[in-house]
Amino acid sequence: MAILADRHTRLIVQGITGREGLFHTRQMIAYGLEHNAPILVGGVTPGRGGEWVEGVPVFDTVREAREATGADASIIYVPARYATDALYEAVDAGISLIVCITEGIPIRDMMRVRQRLALSGARLIGPNCPGLLSPGEAKIGIMPGLAAIPGNVGIVSRSGTLTYEVMYAMTRNGIGQSTCVGIGGDPVCGLGFTDVLQMFEEDPLTDKVVLIGEIGGEEEELAASFVRDHMTKPVVAFVAGKTAPEGRRMGHAGALIEGGMGTHKSKVEALANANIRVADHPEQIPELLVSNF
Amino acid sequence: MNLHEYQAKQLFARYGIPVLNGGVATSPQEAYSIAKELGGKVVVKAQVLTSGRGRSGGIRLVHSAEEARLSAEHMLGMSIAGLVIHKVIIEPIADITQELYLSVVNDRSARLPVIMASATGGTLLHKVPEKVIREHLDPDLGLHDFQVRQLANGIHLPRHLWAAFTRIAHALSRCFFENDCTLAEINPLALMGDGQLVALDGSITVDDNALFRQPELFERRDWLAEHPLEIRAREAGLSYIRLDGDIGCMVNGAGLAMTSMDIIKHVAARFGFEHCGAANFLDLGGGARADQVAAGLRVILADPKVKAVLVNIFGGITRGDEVARGLLSVAMLSNQQIPIICRLVGTNAEAGRNLILDAKLPHVSLATTLIEATERAVLAAGGLTHGDSR
Predict the structure, then answer these.
(1) B4 CA to chain A: closest CA distance, Å?
(2) Where in chain A is CATH 3.40.50.720?
(3) Of chain A residues 109-148, which have a CB less than 8 A from chain B?
(4) How far apart are CA B191 and CA B198, in angstroms?
(5) Catalytic one among B30, B185, B322, B375?
(6) Upstream peptide bond of A187 is cis (omega within 30 degrees of 0)
(7) Where are the domain boundaries for CATH 3.40.50.261 in chain A?
(8) What is the DSSP string of A29-60?
């Protein structure tokens, strides 16, 4: 199977009647029908329980939705100021995989959500992410299904459209994906690079991994040490932001915290030192994947 | 969102953190009156959202109200790092015995806020990062008393200052939490000749995502501190940052936008056009409408440095036909013949490409891959540059 989600996943949509939620519900249902894997079983919008949307039932609460449908995964399209409440509700209802697409959640709120998650054992992907796609099996989020084909390369990325670019370049070269995971670009998010790399290392259907990072933070550096110490499968990487100007940084605290980590140079060096092949541009990734390791 | 020094100090004062009693001036005359009231010997500090203003002539010690007026006259309207100075603050000259450091900031790797203190603040801070004492904070409970004692102990603060230091640390922590800050920094926290601890300079950054629940801070946003083109783009709902190069970029998604900038440099180096680079970062975001695309292109073309435009759209929520309609609406009317190279992939890309083909505009063309599109943009920009130098 793929990691995190496959055709046996039972998915609900929090915010199913909203503009974004509805649009992507249709896309996810269409993907499920096309691949004979209808994973979407219901949705939640407070105040709209009892209605039906696109052939699936709507509930007022996640608990009710879970009890009625047996859902084990939820995807959140709720606007930022209500999204943390939606996250707590999903955790409280015992959903084991939560994917949060919402962009713009305050950092402090996510710090609190992380503490709650640590006590629950639920897995969160995002926020501010494109979700995940196990080609031919399960689409949870907004990744374009057409850009991907089933295969044996896992992708983990902090970016959105850049991930599609890489998937598409691979697909055009006949290289398919086991699972594509967008972990999101926010400073505080759920699963990190190392969590997902560990899953790919253990997944029998994944033979190689592509990691797509960007400047800022130290997730790429941590991922590099993880690959060096714990991974046997080959990894190819790309880091965006080589030519991005340094922001007008205020104060000294940022520099004290990161201490030289976070730059493009630091990330590429750390990755290269861990025997990871780093691409100059995304369209070079297929070439690096097929050349001898 | 970054606050100016004077705004940070107003906030500090509200939390009971001692600051110098000075004033804010927007004209030389105002600077004169404030300096006169303070007795003439004052420091004049430019209010500008960048670091290193001391080196750029943005801080002056003066000895009379008249000198303060002249300094203000010189600074107001001057720019530092491209940012125009609209305000100065006037403060009495401080009698400093020692400069300490105190801040609360989000530690991204620990996913928690951290309070940091050092006995060596001011500009010396960077030289001794190992002497910085850190304590992580619980996002719900905030700062504990014992943590303040650990800080005070760690920086060898004399015992008689512990009470004042504790009050300031708790106040800074409350200020950080209650205002959704990502940074609240006092540097230096000065020990004065009279034994008081005073915040001589401060930086505050507020989490943009939390501004919806911080209406008072949102009101204080200094829109004048931004570039006019950046303001125009923001009003259209686009994320735009002006850069130094000559190739305008329009992309959907921040990661892909940065990547497109990187590829421009990569290709330019290969062609020997080292001077070529991105003129801007522009992220259309997800699901941009034709009118937003049009506004984005107008902003890009309003930059006189731009010699070619690279449009790279990987449509998920964004639709290729909307992008094409927006681009064409501007390109048709524009009498500038700046080459626009478009690469459209994903949702409704075929429809978008057909719209562009049907329009038959000589300066708008299509490319298939990101590399091909970038190569053509670099050649176009590089070619024009060669023409100019001939």
Answers:
(1) 10
(2) 11-125
(3) 110-112, 114-115, 130, 142-144, 146-147
(4) 7
(5) B185
(6) no
(7) 131-290
(8) HHHHHHTT---EEEEE-TT-TT-EETTEEEES
* A247 — pLDDT class (breaks 50, 70, 90): low
- Rounded to the nearest integer, the mean pLDDT of chain B is 91
**B263 shares contact with chain A (CB less than 8 Å):** yes
Q: Which of residues 51-110 of A touch B (CB under 8 A)?
A: 80-81, 104-108, 110
Interchain CB distance below 8 Å, B116 and A253: yes
CA distance to partner chain B, nearest, from residue A266 (Å) = 16
| Whether residue A94 has pLDDT greater than 90 | yes
Q: Which residues in chain A are contacts of B261 at CB distance < 8 A?
A: 243-244
What is the assigned CATH class of domain A11-125? Answer: alpha beta
Rounded to two decimals, what is the model's pTM?
0.90
pLDDT over 80 at A276, yes or no: yes
Chain A residues touching residue B286 (CB < 8 angstroms): 142, 160
Which residues in chain A (175-204) have CB-CB distances under 8 A to chain B? Answer: 185, 187-188
Helices B254-271, B370-389: inter-axial angle, 10-degree rounding: 50
Q: Give residues with Cβ within 8 angstroms of B271, minimum separation 6.
A: B375, B378, B379, B382
**pLDDT-derived band at A249, boundaries 50, 70, 90:** low
CB of A214 within 8 Å of a chain B CB? The answer is yes
Class of domain A131-290: alpha beta
Three-state secondary structure call for residue B2: strand
Query: Which residue ranges of chain B lie beneath pLDDT 70?
Result: 223-225, 384-390
CB B35 within 8 A of CB B89: no
Q: What is the pLDDT of residue B386?
A: 40
Q: Which domains does chain B have, with CATH numbers?
A: 21-92 (3.30.1490.20), 96-219 (3.30.470.20), 228-389 (3.40.50.261)
